[in-house]
Structures are given as C-alpha cells and as structure tokens.
Specification:
271 residues, two-stranded antiparallel sheet, mainly alpha
C-alpha cells in the first residue's frame, strides 16, 4: 500500500465536487430518460386509437433523440432552487417542452414558459390545452410527469449533504490512517464506516449528484484500506538492543612460562 493512494482519494473527491457537477447532472438525466424510454416502450397501448399510437410512437422516438443530443436546460435564474425549468434563458427546453414544440405547438410552450416556467408537469393538470394535447398524442398525465426528472427537496438535500460531509470525511480520515499507520482496530472501524458510507451513496434518490459518487468513492477507499489494515501482518517484537553506553568486559586466557620454569595461568580482563 503506497502513499499515493491517499492523494488519489482526495483528488477523486475534488473532481466530483468541482466543475464536474454539470457533467454528473448530464449523466443523471440521460440515465433517467433511458429508464423512461424503456417504460414507455413496454406500455400496453392496445386501447389507444391508431392515430394515438402513431403519435405516441413518434414522441417516443423524439424523446430518444432528445436524450442523445443532451441539450438539457439549466436552471440559471433560480439556481438556489432544485426545481425543473420548462425553458431556460438560452432557449434550451425540458423534455416535455421539446416534445410539445416539435409537435407544432410552440404557442403552448411560450404560454407555459411565460406563466409557469418552474411548474412540475403534474401541476399542469388544470391546463386544458396540455390535457387535450396529451390525449391527442396518446400520453397520460402520469406518463408525462414521469418523463420529467425528479428534483430533490431542499431539506432532503441538506440532510444528505450533512451526512456526506460526516461520513465521507470520516472515511477519508480512516483511509489516511490505514495507509500511514495501519492498525487492526482502526481497520475494523474503517470497514464499518466505509460500508455505511457506500450504503448511503447507493440509497440516495436521483437528483442529488454528485453526493452519491462522493460517498461511493470515499466509502470504497475506506473499506478497502480497512481490510488491508486489519489483515496486515504485524512485525514480531524486535529484540531488545542494549544501549551503546553500557560498559562491556572482555575476558581472555593468560599463560606465561618464566625463564626459571615457573608457569602462571590466569584470565585477562579488558574494560
């Protein structure tokens, strides 16, 4: 396990919280329309008239083209509110506005954009022109509402943001600890925190990007490095090393034979 892993984790989170947010929203919306297209194509339309089925098929094809183009509106005038916008300041339209205008009813789009630009489609149930148009093209109001992406409640968004700060921050802290000073206890804590962070990331409903990605990345790193720290072999206790200041005594045998034949035997000590 090398130290660059910690830097990589912080870099990954920085990328997901920085300018990449717009790209994350593009990914979210495309995934939403992919799901909606599957649902629309699987719906039983046998009760519709021939003209309704034809019009419905055309709109489904147009929705697929809208999804592929990726020219989604940006709530640039009310950026503090997580709401849909029928048509933004640059003329980009939401999916339903796009379908209505392409069918030849730009007058409806202009009217809604001028009077109810931030309305959810389900709130247009009292608009007789919208209801009549939906009936003509073989769409129900529920299907039209499903085409429109979901947007998080502001309070819910604050709750998830707070959870992300706490859990992802703890996950990154334990990741750093696991890399620089691995220990079994912190490793187990890291696995628990990382698993909880990943679970929260997977549980967040759509509309909260990039929070789920931040939780998945930081939680995954904490969990993996936690396994490493918990399973890392520990070095055996190093043998005690005597201080270099300790005085040692060296002994050596002594044998001397004199000229007169006298012999002396002893030990010589060197300090």
């Amino acid at each position: 396990m090398s130290r660059w892993l910690v830097g990589l984790s912080f870099l990954a989170v920085a990328l997901f919280t920085g300018p990449g947010h717009r790209s994350a929203e593009q990914v979210r919306l495309r995934a939403h329309f992919d799901s909606v297209l599957v649902e629309l194509q699987a719906r039983d339309v046998s009760m519709l008239s021939a003209s309704q089925r034809t019009a419905r098929g055309t709109l489904v094809r147009w929705l697929a083209e809208y999804r592929a183009a990726g020219q989604f509106p940006l709530n640039d005038r009310y950026s503090d509110l997580p709401t849909p916008i029928f048509r933004d300041a640059h003329g980009a339209m939401c999916a339903m506005a796009y379908l209505i205008e392409r069918s030849g009813r730009r007058d409806m789009v202009d009217q809604i954009a001028a009077t109810r630009n931030l309305a959810y489609v389900r709130e247009l149930a009292d608009d007789t022109a919208v209801v009549a148009w939906l009936d003509k093209v073989g769409f129900s109001l529920a299907e039209a509402a499903r085409v429109q992406p979901e947007y998080p409640d502001p309070l819910e968004g604050r709750v998830y943001s707070g959870m992300t700060v706490v859990l992802s921050g703890t996950s990154l802290a334990t990741t750093a600890w696991n890399v620089f000073k691995p220990s079994k206890a912190v490793g187990f804590v890291s696995m628990i925190v990382g698993g909880a962070t990943v679970f929260i990331g997977l549980s967040m409903p759509e509309g909260h990007q990039p929070l789920p990605t931040i939780n998945l990345v930081s939680g995954g790193l904490a969990f993996l490095t936690g396994i490493y720290a918990a399973e890392k072999p520990r070095n055996p206790k190093a043998p005690e090393v005597k201080s270099s200041n300790t005085r040692r005594v060296e002994w050596s045998p002594l044998l001397e034979v004199g000229r007169t034949g006298t012999t002396r035997v002893g030990l010589l000590a060197r300090f």
